[in-house]
């Protein structure tokens, strides 16, 4: 069961591995071996998706066994690519960002991501402000709570990481998969996550779980423990 399992957490855009600190603590207490390497940070910053991917491929190669990979937002897209390449034994995708070719017609999804990618901007490094965060990511918080959240958890990232997200060969993945969606996620809406889930046809086991009151900030908002414990139970039932 879980006591022998490696777990690798992958953070989202404009965060680093520290965003998983409470999760790492909880899952270690549950008997797992956990790590949350950063593809973005104060001392190192990936300049495209493939550099971010290499951070985790290099780390996983040093482990004693294939890990269960848990990714949030674009970290979910990185996790999906790692699974396709055979670097994990299972994947948990939380409010996962879409890989290339996967999209939906949704106003909030289009506007939030258009502001992020902004093809008219010459700036590569970006950190969105509290207005954007409070509208699309931390919409369960007040504005002042959002400002505090940004100061404690966010840092600039290179938007080329978003622009270079590749396609995933869904048919290659046969590992157990758990997709988790937030019912109030405006950045990566529930129906986008479900479309992502449905794209996998050959998985040995797959499940789609919705937390109705969760926003895109699902891994940090009040009640994150329920999500984490659901994942712990899923892992223990699966392995």
| The CATH architecture | 3-Layer(aba) Sandwich
| Fourth-tier CATH superfamily name | Alpha/Beta hydrolase fold, catalytic domain
Please identify the structural class as seen in this structure: alpha/beta
The low-confidence parts are none
Kindly report the average pLDDT value.
Answer: 95
Regarding CATH, which class?
Alpha Beta
Strand order of the largest sheet: 2-1-3-4-7-8
Give the SSE order as H and E letters: EHEHEHEHEHHEHEHEH
Instruction: Tell me the count of domains.
Output: 1
Assign an overall shape: globular
Helix content: 25-40%
Q: Count the beta strands.
A: 8
Number of helices: 9
Strand share of the residues? 5-15%
What name does the CATH topology carry?
A: Rossmann fold
Distance N to C terminus: 6 Å
Rg estimate, integer Å? 16 Å
Largest sheet: 6 strands, parallel
């Amino acid at each position: 069961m879980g006591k022998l399992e490696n777990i690798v957490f992958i953070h989202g855009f404009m965060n680093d591995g520290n965003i998983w600190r409470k999760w790492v603590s909880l899952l270690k207490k549950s008997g797992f071996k956990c790590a949350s390497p950063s593809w973005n940070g104060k001392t190192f910053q990936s300049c495209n998706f493939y550099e971010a991917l290499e951070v985790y491929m290099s780390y996983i190669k040093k482990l004693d066994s294939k890990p269960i990979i848990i990714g949030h937002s674009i970290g979910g897209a990185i996790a999906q690519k790692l699974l396709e390449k055979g670097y994990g034994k299972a994947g948990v995708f939380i409010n996962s960002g879409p890989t290339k070719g996967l999209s939906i017609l949704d106003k909030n999804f289009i506007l939030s991501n258009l502001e992020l990618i902004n093809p008219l901007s010459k700036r590569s490094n970006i950190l969105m402000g509290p207005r954007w965060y409070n509208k699309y990511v931390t919409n369960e918080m007040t504005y002042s709570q959002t400002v505090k959240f940004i100061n404690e958890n966010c840092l600039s990232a290179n938007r080329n990481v978003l622009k270079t997200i590749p396609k995933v060969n869904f048919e290659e993945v046969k590992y157990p998969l758990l997709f988790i969606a937030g019912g109030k996620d405006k950045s990566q809406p529930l129906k986008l996550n479900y479309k992502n889930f449905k794209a996998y046809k050959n998985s040995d086991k797959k499940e789609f779980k919705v937390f109705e009151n969760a926003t895109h900030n699902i891994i940090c908002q009040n009640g994150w423990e329920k999500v984490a414990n659901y994942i712990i139970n899923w892992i223990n039932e699966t392995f």
